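To make the argument concrete, we let one protein speak, a sequence paired with a row of structure tokens, as a model reads it:
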Amino acid sequence: MSKNGWNPPTEPPPAYSLHQHACITLNSSDRFRLIRFPSTIIDVIRQAITTSWPRGLQREEDYSGAYEFKLSGNPWWGQGDEAISSRVLM
């Protein structure tokens, strides 16, 4: 036992806890990247984007191992009507 009474774990984490982390990043003024998401969740996010972003998707592609959606317009600038729609999207 350490001085503060905490012992670091000595066994690896259980298998179900491996690979259960993912990341969403907002890039440039119009890109949405998904890192380590399974394809089933990417499909759900695509549907959310198409129903809540009125300008729609410009393209989708693999981006260095991440999945990238390029939205039409500039949702991350957040001005005018796009500001409301981008917040609904998020």
Remarks:
- The mean pLDDT is 84.
- The beta strands are 23-27, 31-35, 57-63, 66-71.
- The longest strand covers residues 57-63.
- The radius of gyration is 19 Å.
